[in-house]
């Protein structure tokens, strides 16, 4: 068999192995926990915390409103019940009722403001929860795709490595050494195809003599410019 052809086939397999290994590393780097998900979960948790805090403030505020109302009712009963007749005392009671009612209205306004804020945060929490669910679904789907890709890449790498071993077994040691040496120096490409009389590794136009030797394929012929082994298909 043509030696250059064997080395060319080996190079094709080696390049494919490299590409699959790179793809596998890429897939594996994306398997596992997602930073974006962790961030979204933390954000939701802090919004929920804020909501719980606001709801507590709202309950306390409502309780205070109730308290003021019952205190006002007690004073009004005293004021209009007829049990107090002293005018001074009545005026004082009247003032206390007015004061409590005013404070009560202020407190109600505060509660209303808090309720508006609670609603805003509730909406935000609901939106964030929905967004998180969507992200988790996407993530699970992505992870399952990645696992499948990983298995496929591993399987094709195993078969490529098997193929490589078979190819290497048929190539002599000197040629293999030259191949590896040239691959190290030539950006992974030790063998260049010859097309239209040109070395496809460096675009040099080859001499008739070089072309003829390469065509015969008995011995390895290297390009005089880029040193790559010339292969005529
Ligand atoms: Zn060349």
In whole angstroms, the N-to-C terminal distance is 12 Å
Number of domains: 2
Mean residue pLDDT: 95
CATH class annotation of the largest domain: Mainly Alpha
Indicate the structural class: mainly alpha
* Number of DSSP helical runs: 5
CATH domain topology of the largest domain? Helix Hairpins
- Net shape: rod-shaped
User: How would a crystallographer describe the biggest sheet?
Assistant: 3 strands, mixed
User: What is the radius of gyration?
Assistant: 42 Å
Verbal overview:
This protein is mostly helical and 233 residues long. The protein folds into 2 domains: 31-169, Helix Hairpins (Orthogonal Bundle), CATH 1.10.287; 172-231, no CATH class. It has 5 helices and 3 strands; from the N terminus they run H-H-H-H-E-E-H-E. It has helices at residues 3-30, 35-80, 87-169, 173-185, 208-216, and strands at 191-195, 198-199, 229-231. It has a 3-stranded mixed β-sheet. Strand 1 and strand 2 (198-199) form a beta hairpin. The structure holds zinc ion. Residues 192, 199, 201-202, 204, 223, 225-226, 228 line the site of zinc ion.
Please specify the SSE layout and strand pairing.
Layout: H1 3-30, H2 35-80, H3 87-169, H4 173-185, E1 191-195, E2 198-199, H5 208-216, E3 229-231
Parallel strand pairs: 1-3
Antiparallel strand pairs: 1-2
Helix pairs in contact: 1-3, 2-3
This protein binds zinc ion.
Summarize the structure.
The chain has five helices and three strands; from the N terminus they run ααααββαβ. With 233 residues, it is mainly α.
């Amino acid at each position: 068999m043509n030696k250059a052809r064997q080395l060319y086939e080996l190079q094709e397999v080696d390049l494919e192995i490299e590409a699959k290994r790179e793809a596998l590393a890429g897939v594996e780097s994306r398997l596992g926990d997602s930073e974006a998900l962790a961030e979204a979960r933390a954000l939701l948790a802090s919004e929920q915390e804020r909501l719980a805090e606001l709801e507590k403030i709202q309950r306390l505020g409502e309780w205070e409103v109730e308290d003021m109302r019952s205190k006002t009712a007690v004073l009004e009963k005293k004021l209009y019940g007829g049990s107090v007749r002293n005018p001074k005392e009545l005026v004082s009671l009247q003032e206390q009722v007015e004061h409590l009612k005013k404070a009560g209205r202020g407190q109600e306004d505060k509660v209303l403001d808090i309720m508006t804020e609670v609603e805003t945060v509730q909406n935000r929490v609901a939106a964030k929860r929905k967004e998180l669910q969507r992200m988790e679904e996407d993530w699970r789907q992505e992870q399952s795709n990645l696992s499948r890709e990983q298995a496929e890449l591993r399987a094709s790498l195993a078969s490529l490595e098997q193929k490589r071993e078979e190819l290497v077994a048929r190539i002599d040691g000197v040629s293999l050494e030259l191949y590896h040496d040239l691959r190290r120096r030539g950006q992974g490409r030790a063998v260049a195809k010859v097309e239209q009389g040109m070395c496809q590794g460096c675009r040099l136009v080859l001499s008739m003599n070089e072309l003829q030797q390469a065509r015969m394929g008995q011995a390895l012929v290297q390009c005089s410019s880029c040193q790559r082994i010339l292969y005529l298909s």
